[in-house]
Amino acid sequence: MAGCGRSRRRRDRVYPVYKASFSGALKTLLDLLPERALEHKVVLPFATGGSIAHMLAVDYALKPVLAALKAQEVLHGIFADDSQIAYGEGSAAPQLAPVLTQRLESSIETFHSALARRPRPVEPGTLNDRLLRSRFSI
């Protein structure tokens, strides 16, 4: 289970943990990103793993990489072990344990709050116009 959501101001990352770190597939994807790919972004990392023994992978393996990609804010990550996710057969949706659902909902609220307190980026053309107008109004 790997994927990501995107917008201009946010990034979600969901990745599987393998041998206490992120998988080679995610490493390859992250290597393709430019150095400042997460600049001005709020990032909420999610991870799944076979057991709670991999719980610290978000903090010790992924967060430094996200910081190197210049993420403006990396929120507290979410880890789910396999016992908290019942994968659906065929087209059936996976079922999440209630405790995981609560953690996800709480983290999503925190994520939305972090997005709301960020200033909206100003388009370069708008900034240039503002600077030119202010110069002549002095």
Could you explain how this protein is built, in words?
- The protein is of the alpha/beta class and 138 residues long.
- It has four helices and eight strands.
- 38% of the residues lie in helices and 24% in strands.
- Strands 1, 2, 3, 4, 5 and 6 form a six-stranded mixed beta sheet that branches. Strands 7-8 form a two-stranded antiparallel ribbon.
- A hairpin with a 2-residue loop joins strand 2 and strand 3 (21-22).
- The termini are far apart.
- It is elongated, with a radius of gyration of 19 Å.
- It has one domain (3-136): Rossmann fold (3-Layer(aba) Sandwich).
Task: Name a few traits of the molecule.
about 40% helix, about 140 residues, two-stranded antiparallel sheet, alpha/beta, Rossmann fold, 6-stranded mixed β-sheet
Give the N-to-C terminal Cα separation: 57 Å
Shape estimate: elongated
CATH topology: Rossmann fold
The ordered H/E elements are EEEHEHEEEEHH
Q: What's the total helix number? A: 4
The CATH first-level class comes to: Alpha Beta
Q: How many domains would you count in the coordinates?
A: 1
Which structural class do you get from the secondary structure elements?
alpha/beta
CATH superfamily: Flavodoxin domain
Low-confidence runs (pLDDT<50, min 5 residues)? Answer: none
Share of helical residues: 25-40%
Question: How would you characterize the largest beta sheet?
Answer: 6 strands, mixed
Mean of pLDDT: 81
Second CATH tier, the architecture: 3-Layer(aba) Sandwich
Radius of gyration: 19 Å
Strand-residue fraction? 15-25%
- Could you give the count of β-strands? 8
